[in-house]
Amino acid sequence: MSEDLVWYACYGSNLHQERFMCYIEGGIPEGSTKDHSGCSDRTPPRDDRSIILPYGLLFSMRCEQWEDAGVAFVDTENMTLSGTRGRMYLVTSEQFVQIVRQENGLEPDDGSMDFSIEDAIGRGELELPGPYGRLIHVGFEMPHPILTFTSMTAADLEPLAPGEKYLRTIVRGLMETYDIEDAEISLYLKQAVGIKGTPVENDLDRIVS
Fold first, then answer.
1. What predicted TM-score, i.e. pTM, was given to this entire model?
2. Residue 152: its pLDDT value, please?
3. What are the structural domains, with CATH classification, of the chain?
4. Backbone angles phi, psi at 74, to 5 degrees
5. In this predicted model, what pLDDT tens digit does every residue of 49-95 receive, in sequence order?
6. What is the per-residue DSSP string for 109-136?
């Protein structure tokens, strides 16, 4: 892979930089049980910025490493004006490929998931195997492309509330990325599919504070 740079746009636990760095440097994120191998190149991101993704936020797909509860996806069939609060990290193309593999439960050098970033940009999206197998070209933060990923069937996922440790990780990331009050974070998360109308919605004020 070349040293070309890519903006990786995230919206779940990777909002929290310490958690995200486990995909770069390896290690077990706080609150999780998964030990990540990390990227071949462990150089930290060159930059990071906030981004609003124009899709709805939802929680689904039971994840054993996060309290056997739901994790975050964006629903590309649900375009919203408010969007989903994200954070994007400027990483190398090689790092991005290895992050995608790790997010899909593979080792960073596993060639069974191989793809061309140029192809994803040209086609707008790619469908790959795995829970986060839908790779989407969001746009450009010049001169670099912005890419994110979600489920290939996000609109059909069964809503499932996330666990408290996972939510706390997202809250820390939102606080790092945005100038935002606790009440606004709580309100934002309460609107998400998988949280709205569940007991977790009533507990969010406590979790956020």
1. 0.95
2. 80
3. 5-180 (3.10.490.10)
4. -110, 140
5. 999 999 999 999 999 999 999 999 999 888 888 899 999 999 999 99
6. T-TTS---HHHHHHHSEEE-SSTT-EEE
